[in-house]
Amino acid sequence: MDKVDPNKRVCALVIDFLIISSINTSLSFLLHINRAKPFFSLLSFLFYVFRDSYHGQSPGKMLVGLQATDQNDKPTDYAASFKRNIILFWPIVFYIFIPAPKPEIHALNQADLPTLVRLGLNAINAAISIIEYITATRRKDGRRMGDMLAGTKVIDLKPETPGWIFAVIAVVLIAIHIFIDMLLTTKP
């Protein structure tokens, strides 16, 4: 099995993030609901853990040309998608139960407990994501811990496309997202 370029996997994840972020932002504006409400955490969690259950491809994987499969190259199903992705996205579940941060809190020394818990969960999630990336890049088969847990792997359906292109695409997409988010959250 050829190892999938990690840049392709990261780019697919960035695309998935931008899709759910755009859906959450759009629904927030249309329904006049704060994005920190539990509904959006639940929506994000369900999207992320089951994202590879449609023919083994999330929207990001479809665009990049990747597919999550079992060891016999059969596309992942709902159960395998859940197993392989829960390790990355379990902290989102806690957002459903932890109250949103208070908007008037601007400094960490004034932060309330829910804000500190969310910051801690974000730090844990970042650490897990880094460990997953390192695991995938160091292993000869390119599998991350979630793949080992679920008995899955990711295959490259477009191996002729170099991975560096997807690294550039991911960085550009993140920059665009940050710019748009700044425009939407800056108060005049």
Describe the structure.
The protein has 188 residues and is mainly α. Helices cover 63% and strands 5% of the residues. It is built from 8 helices and 2 strands. A two-stranded antiparallel sheet has the order 1-2. The radius of gyration is 17 Å and the shape is globular. The model has no long low-confidence stretch (mean pLDDT 85).
Distance between the termini: 53 Å
Number of helices: 8
E-strand count:
2
Strand content: 5-15%
The computed structural class is mainly alpha
Domain count: 1
Largest sheet: 2 strands, antiparallel
Low-confidence stretches: none
Mean pLDDT: 85
Concise summary:
By secondary structure, this protein is mainly α. The protein has helices at residues 6-31, 38-49, 59-64, 78-89, 91-97, 113-138, 145-150, 163-185; strands at 66-70, 152-156.
Q: Which key phrases capture this entry?
A:
mainly alpha; two-stranded antiparallel ribbon; 8 helices; about 65% helix
Task: Annotate the secondary structure layout.
Layout: H1 6-31, H2 38-49, H3 59-64, E1 66-70, H4 78-89, H5 91-97, H6 113-138, H7 145-150, E2 152-156, H8 163-185
Antiparallel strand pairs: 1-2
Helix pairs in contact: 1-2, 1-8, 2-5, 5-6
